[in-house]
Amino acid sequence: MEGTALKLLGAGIAMVGTFGAGLGLGMIFSAWLNALARNPAAEDKYKQVGFIGFAATELVLLLAFVVSVMLMLVV
């Protein structure tokens, strides 16, 4: 294989982490909305935990994207 093909293959493999991040975001917001529907009075408590979970999951997505772009452009 040529060097360019290997770079693109590596970038595609690096993007596999975005699949898990997408599933994680769906599960976080599903549970968050379910909790708010069951107990609307505790919205402030759930809001903080939901945003922390969202930020942690989004970090994985962004890191996978950055690694993929670095593999395509830098290496």
Please, could you describe this protein's structure?
The protein is mostly helical. 87% of the residues lie in helices and 0% in strands. It has three helices and no strands. 1% of the residues are buried.
Task: Please give a quick description of this structure.
By secondary structure, the chain is mostly helical.
Could you say which overall geometry the principal axes of the C-alpha atoms support?
elongated
SSE succession: HHH
Profile the largest sheet. Answer: none
Q: What proportion of the residues form beta strands (DSSP E)?
A: under 5%
Evaluate the radius of gyration. 17 Å
Low-confidence segments, ≥5 residues, pLDDT <50? none
Oligomer: single chain
Distance between the termini: 16 Å
Helical content (DSSP H or I, runs of 4+): over 70%
- Averaged pLDDT: 87
Quickly count the helices. 3
